[in-house]
Write a structure and sequence with these properties.
Belongs to the HAD-like hydrolase superfamily. CbbY/CbbZ/Gph/YieH family. Helices cover 49% and strands 10% of the residues. The protein has 241 residues and is an alpha/beta fold. The chain folds into two domains: 144 residues, 3-Layer(aba) Sandwich (Rossmann fold), CATH 3.40.50.1000; 84 residues, DNA polymerase, domain 1, CATH 1.10.150. It has a six-stranded parallel beta sheet, with helices on both faces. Helix 2 crosses helix 3. The longest helix has 22 residues. The termini are close together.
């Protein structure tokens, strides 16, 4: 009834964009932080070969989405041939987090209704649930969205730093989630809205990888190419599979 293979006993959910609408908040926070940096860089004259165009939606999807904060900064800057020191990378990351937390405090968090329906169905069916997110704000987002009670274990950006795990698209955080739940990767399903997260699920040889396409366009095809076993536009679509 959950649209998963019979051997799956554990669900490993990404958070932002899968369970909650906060992916759009992250995207906007990144845009504000990067655009402020790019404008200042252009005012200072930049360096030869640098691309200082404003941050775009495609930049978020290709270089930032799903990745740990510092990895996202470095990935985007590399795509624009911009070289900075570690202090500048950390300053951009901190500016983004400040923007995100301000929006969170002002507007709160909304869970996707389809995701809540799926979580309830999963719990009723006995599927065990963990969250695996690159965000360091995972606990706050889960609590604000009223989803904490569904989650048995959480691997987040703090775990990644504290345990020196490689961020997505490496499978480390998902493998850690499976370990905490006491199952082999083949017994767990990964649920992701980011290409980097789908790649992580495929690289970890998980039993099933579900892509959630919230953006349209070529995203579903890209997810399938990255290793998704199925792609849906909302989690509750799996209930009819």
């Amino acid at each position: 009834m959950l649209g998963l293979p019979a051997q799956i006993t554990v669900a490993l959910f990404d958070l932002d964009g899968v369970l909650t609408t906060t992916a759009t908040v992250h995207s906007e926070a990144w845009r504000r932080a990067f655009d402020a940096f790019l404008v200042a860089r252009a005012a200072d004259g930049g360096a030869p070969g640098e691309d200082l165009r404003p941050f775009a939606d495609r930049d978020y999807l290709d270089h930032v989405d799903g990745r740990p904060r510092l990895d996202g900064v470095r990935g985007f800057l590399a795509s624009r041939s911009i070289v900075v020191d570690d202090a500048a990378v950390e300053a951009i990351a901190e500016a983004k987090n400040t923007e995100f937390l301000a929006t969170l405090a002002r507007d709160g968090v909304t869970a996707y209704p389809g995701s809540v329906r799926y979580l309830n169905a999963a719990r009723e069916a006995g599927l065990r649930i963990a969250v695996v997110t690159s965000s360091k704000n995972g606990a706050a987002v889960l609590e604000a969205a009223g989803l904490t009670s569904f989650v048995e274990h959480r691997v987040d950006g703090n775990t990644i730093v504290d345990e020196q795990l490689r961020g997505k698209p490496a499978p480390d955080s998902y493998l850690r989630g499976a370990e905490l739940m006491g199952v082999a990767p083949t017994e767990a399903a990964v649920f992701e809205d980011a290409i980097s997260g789908v790649q992580a699920g495929a690289a970890g040889h998980f039993g099933y990888v579900v892509g959630i396409d919230r953006v349209g366009g070529p995203q579903a095809e890209n997810m399938a190419t990255a290793g998704a076993d199925v792609v849906v536009t909302d989690l509750d679509a799996l209930l009819s599979h």
